[in-house]
Amino acid sequence: DKLLSVLDQDRMDILETLVRVTMIETEMILLDGISALRMWEHLARVQLANIISPGQLFSPFEIPEDW
Questions:
Q1: Is residue 20 included in any domain, yes or no?
Q2: Residues 27-57: pLDDT tens digits?
């Protein structure tokens, strides 16, 4: 459990850094950043809901062309 919690914290730190650096580099305002993250979360949840076998959890994330 301790190892998993450390790994989860490390992954969250990486995600936080990616989001922060992206927002700074693109000069995105906070509201736009939150909106983009919410759209990404919705897309991820829809794709995860359509999974029918455990192997699909490791499939690449599909981002539509018009997204």
A1: yes
A2: 999 999 999 999 989 998 999 899 888 888 8
Q: Looking at the domain assignment, is residue 13 inside a domain?
A: yes
pLDDT of residue 45: 92
CA distance 28 to 50: 31
Q: How far apart are the first and last CA of the chain?
A: 37
pLDDT tops 90 at residue 20: yes
Is the separation of the CB atoms in 49 and 25 below 8 Å?
A: no
Looking at residue 12, its amino acid is: M
In a domain, 16, yes or no: yes
**Of 41, 12, 16, the residue nearest 24 (C-alpha):** 16
Q: What's the pTM? A: 0.64
CA distance 62 to 59: 9
Specify if 23 maps to a domain.
yes
